[in-house]
Design a protein that fits this description.
Blueprint lengths: L2 H4 L1 H8 L18 E3 L3 E10 L5 E8 L2 E2 L1 H11 L4 E4 L2 E3 L2 E3 L11 H7 L2 H16 L3 E2 H4 L6 E3 L4 H10 L4 H5 L2 H8 L5 H4 L7 H25 L4 H23 L5 E8 L3 H10 L4 E12 L4
């Protein structure tokens, strides 16, 4: 398996599977949706408008585990929206906020899904990372409201998409633990530093920064590398099409509406591309939210 593909599910723990972008775009035209500063790992919120309509759209990229204040900031952004279209792979009536954590409404059917070994492995790893860094899970803070509309595929549809692309949930998740370890053992001067393990706070902050750097690097590979074209097109774009089909029904409403898309951060480039090119929306503002503090733990 190619190295970048082996890293997919480590990346998906935080961003949900793959990230789309046209392979013809050069670096100057790349959409920025995730960035690392001295103090934080950040995700973007794009606000778009269209001169010919009364619609405003907020595209909110999210990481599925992060600092509590991060999700409180997202809640403050989405509370005044008329409709929020959100990511959540479904098992019949059971809605899952993301494939990685499988948190959400517990039913008899959803418990069957939780017994899937691949799902268990992903969820366990995500929980370990959350505990280690004192993170919380997205599903604990962002709970569907009356004006939230689930705009995603079902779990069976997701498996069909994987199969058509010769991708397999079990095979991909086998690399999870190994790749998490390798993320922190890359051949760089920083990873060669001797960390004083007696200083637990210092150690955790260094560990967190390395993980954040690795996630940004993986994001860029998944968004722009040619070897990621098949999973990028098959999984992210197919699911984005579903989300946009829900959004389309309200794009040309005569009413003044504020709509939102709440999806994994790596979905943003394709959403923006479609809304700008096909629906003539323009970016009005970009706001950056601190998902992980890199100064405290």
């Amino acid at each position: 398996m190619i190295p970048a593909l082996k890293r997919i599910f480590l990346f998906s723990v935080f961003f949900l599977i793959f990230s789309p972008i046209s392979t013809q775009e050069n670096e100057e035209n790349r959409t920025e949706f995730l960035r690392l500063t001295d103090s934080a790992l950040q995700t973007a919120v794009y606000t778009l408008g269209n001169e010919d309509s009364n619609i405003k759209i907020k595209i909110i990229g999210v990481i599925h585990v992060g600092d509590p204040i991060y999700y409180r900031e997202i809640l403050s952004i989405i509370q005044d929206l008329d409709y929020l279209f959100y990511e959540g792979i479904r098992l019949n009536n059971a809605i899952r906020p993301n494939v990685a954590s499988f948190t959400g409404i517990q039913t008899e059917e959803s418990e069957k899904l939780d017994n899937n070994n691949s799902v268990k492995g992903i969820a366990t790893f995500q929980n370990e990372i959350a505990r280690y860094f004192n993170f919380v899970e997205q599903g604990d803070y962002l709970k569907p409201q009356e004006n939230w509309i689930n705009a995603d595929v079902t779990f069976n549809e997701f498996l069909v998409i994987l199969k058509k692309s010769n991708l397999n949930l079990d095979i991909l998740t086998k690399n999870l633990t190994l790749d998490a370890k390798s993320a922190l053992e890359e051949d760089s001067e920083e990873t060669k530093e001797k960390i004083d393990e007696s200083d637990k706070h210092k150690f955790i902050l260094k560990y967190k920064r390395k993980m954040a750097k690795y996630l940004v690097k993986s994001a860029e590979e998944l968004c722009y590398d040619e070897e990621m074209r098949i999973p990028r097109e098959a999984i992210i774009i197919e699911r984005n099409k579903v989300a946009l089909s829900f959004l389309n029904s309200r794009l040309f409403s005569p009413q003044h509406l504020e709509l939102g898309l709440l999806y994994g951060a790596a979905h943003l480039p394709h959403f923006l591309e479609v809304l700008q090119k096909e629906h003539k929306f323009q970016i009005h503002t970009i706001e950056w939210l601190d998902a992980w503090s890199l100064k405290s733990n």
